[in-house]
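Most newcomers find our protein records easier to grasp once they have seen one. A record pairs a protein's sequence with a compact description of its fold. An example says more than a description, so a record of this kind follows:
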Amino acid sequence: MDPVSQGALGAALPQSLARAEHTGLAMLCGIAGGMAPDLDVLIRSSNDPLLFLEYHRQFTHSLVFIPVGALMVGFTLWAVFGRRRAWSFRETYVFSLLGYATHALLDACTSYGTLLFWPFSDQRFAWNNVSIIDPLLTLPLIGLIILSRFRRRRWPAALGMLWVVAYLSAGVVARDAAEDVGRKIARSRGHDPLVVEAKPSFANLLLWKTIYRQGNDYFVDAVRLGREPVIYPGSTVPALDLRRDLPWLQANSLQARDVERFRWFSMGYLALDPRFPDQVMDIRYSMLPNEILPLWSIQLDKGAQGSQHVRYRVSRERGPDTFQRLWRMIRGLPLKDTPGDSPAGLGGAQLPVND
């Protein structure tokens, strides 16, 4: 998740266990420990644009690395601040350990993918029960850890932990409900997919993006949960087929290997961007949940030499009414059709889904 959420949760756990006089130390060490694993974003290469995708949420997020990462955080805090202030190294380390331990598990609750069991497995865990940024989760937690610090009491931080557990549990229930609606959408089209996945949209647990594959095509829709769930029909795009979509790509080329690296990162959710025939996109993320307009993709070069990497592209393109449309979808309101606002030209009609 975002660094603020990670730091807040990292502070809450050690604060909820610390003695009254150590709530400030627990808060500081927990924030540092909770945020430290994301320092892996500094692992980059100007020659290999996909290197950071391999290392972000990799070894620093592994469960077996927690004691090591926490030791690095705890020793740094103790060496820079602690010796002059007579901090106990043991307590500094334990508080950092508790904060560090929260990070990977919270990240695994998002849809990005986290390598919890590296180096024993390269499986990316994504439980899809909370958005990468969700103020409804984070703001109450921040208030409670601040209260715990200035009241010098453990109970506000403990209450914050309970809030996080309750919110993430609600996300699991909502995810399962959205997947159930997604299966109904598929059946209404005469489809019977093996897997339907639901991923939360930005900053809420009401509006979800559903994705399933039928034959060679991905189907993307948005589901707004409620007493009577509402769907916003979305887009369809063929799953990436290298022979069909990129017949010129040599199997042993560096670009071909980069495509497979990107496939691993995206958990297989790849398609050729309908707007750009040289770009392969990750369809899991989009500004609006019923769209396939990607937030990131890779660009290939037909004329490139065998030793040239692909280019990594990040897109923040959005229309002037994107957030207005998102807000209407969160509220379950109908949308005005705007032809051409997505690759499939679908504006998002509102349809009720009944049992």
Remarks:
- The chain is about 40% helix and 15% strand.
